[in-house]
Amino acid sequence: MKKHILVIPGDGIGQEVTQWGKAALAQIAKNFGHEFTFDEALMGHAAIEVTGNPLPDETLEKARKSDAILFGAIGHAMYDNDPSLKVRPEQGLLKIRKELGLYANLRPILLFDELLEASSIKADILQGTDILFFRELTGDVYFGEKSRSEDRNTASDLMIYHKYEVERIAHKAYQAAQQRSKRLCSVDKANVLESSRLWRETVQEIAKQYPDVETEHMFIDNAAMQLIKNPKKFDVVLTANLFGDILTDEASQIAGSMGMLASASVGDGVGFYEPIHGSAHDIAGKNLANPLASILSAALMLEISFGLKEEATTLVNAVDKALKDGYRTGDIADQNTDTAKVLGTQEMGQLVLTYLAQ
Amino acid sequence: MKKHILVIPGDGIGQEVTQWGKAALAQIAKNFGHEFTFDEALMGHAAIEVTGNPLPDETLEKARKSDAILFGAIGHAMYDNDPSLKVRPEQGLLKIRKELGLYANLRPILLFDELLEASSIKADILQGTDILFFRELTGDVYFGEKSRSEDRNTASDLMIYHKYEVERIAHKAYQAAQQRSKRLCSVDKANVLESSRLWRETVQEIAKQYPDVETEHMFIDNAAMQLIKNPKKFDVVLTANLFGDILTDEASQIAGSMGMLASASVGDGVGFYEPIHGSAHDIAGKNLANPLASILSAALMLEISFGLKEEATTLVNAVDKALKDGYRTGDIADQNTDTAKVLGTQEMGQLVLTYLAQ
Ligand SMILES: CC(C)[C@H](C(=O)O)[C@@H](O)C(=O)O
Ligand SMILES: CC(C)[C@H](C(=O)O)[C@@H](O)C(=O)O
């Protein structure tokens, strides 16, 4: 199989981890006789520094021409500390999601048995958890009109949904639920928000087309609580953009660390794969970041964009083997970890590559 | 001390638990020689059924005339299942918050040692946690303009903040931080939302007036994760209305159960005290609800509205004694609980009263 992959490392630890996702893809190509070609492009603060634009036209063009995109992370402390800056790294990520029609963000909460103890949640509560989030990604308060009054004393963002936006992601989520345990939980705040009432009504309608799937509607506040109280209760979770952002980060604690979670953004065309962790500027450049989420993002690419199931499994198994052999990055180490086996970004990446090459 | 207290049981389990908060107040008055008089009023579904209005004028009038309000819960499955209904119970709660100027919602995460094991989070992660949330309560997407297009296919809610709204709650939160461990974490989504950028700018300004308090700014997604990863990291947490709704429900798992958490809403005038749990219609009328959050809400009333510290402590101690003696309601029972000591709403309420009367 011939595929052309665009790699966008982005900012902070994105620079460090993405090379390992890319290297893993290259090794898989070698193992299975595929021909993967790679290109690189700038986005975020990295792009602002060079071009003044968080999403340069060139990046967007390259993205459109690629068969899939591997992305790192975005964001920089400079902007976080100065809310008045007009050009911001995150605009690049939001724009590429919108331009490529990446309306469905899949975030599987993949639980490795070896990491059960790395979580702050009790192992018996976690064991057996298997959640697949469908987070809407191109609507909501992220994309509604923003405004600031002239005296700068009033600011607003419009939380807005169109019915077709809810429908298309609901269909994707229901189809996934049919392939899984046939349970879907839709999260909203319909007791307060009009946009959530549209969300709920629409999901209620779509639900009728999937009578084999059991639907539950839950308020976001309750969901944020239930998710840690009883994570096994959930299977497919369908959420709006903002609520999904919050819930999936929270859910990362189920998997032991944010450093383990990959995501796939899909929709109208090319697929976009990224760890759910951010740019983490506090640890950037220190060889401390966990490269496994990037490698697992590559696995999602193989499976979802290229339909290469066996190749994807090979990648996941290599990650699993590293964990089974006792290796950890700092974020997933616990008191039982052999300190000699706590690895840096480079060493963990290299280890997985070595397993793949065997 | 003479005080007039308005009791609004509201909907669902609110009807069952609020009478115990009230009874506890009456017993405290007796013990300490105060004169507390009580009145009752309708709100929510209970009020819609009788008057067609989720917040009847009479309730609002009684509220304005009272020295403090003890509230139960609001909401009903009928409305949750039918998003198209125009008159909804929650409108009553939102309206009374707005009308009474209850802009600051204080939600202390009070940890009883006896309940450490009732949480899904590991005891060693929880131990020593002491968080006080300041949730903004009369602004945000809760109160911004709502709209629905004529074809009903587009719906929106305006997420909006005015600078003065952020300032007044920030001052309250900083003042509390000065009395505590002098750490404040402000939560927003300033990397995406204009209203959050106003929030962050304003908090940065107010922070300068409290140089003895250490300020941290955190994105809501990260906060939702950190809260369960390392709850001890937090002391005073300052949030907007929606983010506070989500984070405090999530944080209820730290206290073992939502059934244990009380809250105080204060602002321009009279104080309003309520459990953070909802109406829980699935268990309503079954004598299963935990009355302790209502009793602890009464304790907050004594302390905050009436300045009766000793009386408040007496109430908290009675709750603590019930737990120390091994008594639990279903929501806080664990595998170590003596099943003979798992009590219903009535029995737990009565037990605390008995302790108070001793
Ligand atoms: C960086 C930020 C804009 C982004 C989001 O909020 O969507 C991130 O948190 C994510 O979840 O991908
Ligand atoms: C019932 C609902 C409107 C309310 C809210 O969202 O504010 C509740 O969840 C709360 O936290 O008090």
From TrEMBL, chains A, B:
<feature type="binding site">
    <location>
        <position position="249"/>
    </location>
    <ligand>
        <name>Mg(2+)</name>
    </ligand>
</feature>
<dbReference type="Pfam" id="PF00180">
    <property type="entry name" value="Iso_dh"/>
</dbReference>
<comment type="function">
    <text>Catalyzes the oxidation of 3-carboxy-2-hydroxy-4-methylpentanoate (3-isopropylmalate) to 3-carboxy-4-methyl-2-oxopentanoate. The product decarboxylates to 4-methyl-2 oxopentanoate.</text>
</comment>
<protein>
    <recommendedName>
        <fullName>3-isopropylmalate dehydrogenase</fullName>
        <ecNumber>1.1.1.85</ecNumber>
    </recommendedName>
</protein>
<dbReference type="InterPro" id="IPR019818">
    <property type="entry name" value="IsoCit/isopropylmalate_DH_CS"/>
</dbReference>
<keyword id="KW-0432">Leucine biosynthesis</keyword>
<feature type="binding site">
    <location>
        <position position="221"/>
    </location>
    <ligand>
        <name>substrate</name>
    </ligand>
</feature>
<keyword id="KW-0520">NAD</keyword>
<feature type="binding site">
    <location>
        <position position="97"/>
    </location>
    <ligand>
        <name>substrate</name>
    </ligand>
</feature>
<dbReference type="GO" id="GO:0003862">
    <property type="term" value="F:3-isopropylmalate dehydrogenase activity"/>
</dbReference>
<comment type="pathway">
    <text>Amino-acid biosynthesis; L-leucine biosynthesis; L-leucine from 3-methyl-2-oxobutanoate: step 3/4.</text>
</comment>
<keyword id="KW-0460">Magnesium</keyword>
<feature type="binding site">
    <location>
        <position position="107"/>
    </location>
    <ligand>
        <name>substrate</name>
    </ligand>
</feature>
<dbReference type="InterPro" id="IPR004429">
    <property type="entry name" value="Isopropylmalate_DH"/>
</dbReference>
<feature type="binding site">
    <location>
        <position position="245"/>
    </location>
    <ligand>
        <name>Mg(2+)</name>
    </ligand>
</feature>
<keyword id="KW-0479">Metal-binding</keyword>
<dbReference type="InterPro" id="IPR024084">
    <property type="entry name" value="IsoPropMal-DH-like_dom"/>
</dbReference>
<feature type="site" description="Important for catalysis">
    <location>
        <position position="142"/>
    </location>
</feature>
<feature type="domain" description="Isopropylmalate dehydrogenase-like">
    <location>
        <begin position="4"/>
        <end position="352"/>
    </location>
</feature>
<comment type="subunit">
    <text>Homodimer.</text>
</comment>
<feature type="site" description="Important for catalysis">
    <location>
        <position position="189"/>
    </location>
</feature>
<feature type="binding site">
    <location>
        <position position="221"/>
    </location>
    <ligand>
        <name>Mg(2+)</name>
    </ligand>
</feature>
<keyword id="KW-0028">Amino-acid biosynthesis</keyword>
<comment type="similarity">
    <text>Belongs to the isocitrate and isopropylmalate dehydrogenases family. LeuB type 1 subfamily.</text>
</comment>
<keyword id="KW-0100">Branched-chain amino acid biosynthesis</keyword>
<keyword id="KW-0963">Cytoplasm</keyword>
<feature type="binding site">
    <location>
        <position position="135"/>
    </location>
    <ligand>
        <name>substrate</name>
    </ligand>
</feature>
<keyword id="KW-0560">Oxidoreductase</keyword>
<keyword id="KW-0464">Manganese</keyword>
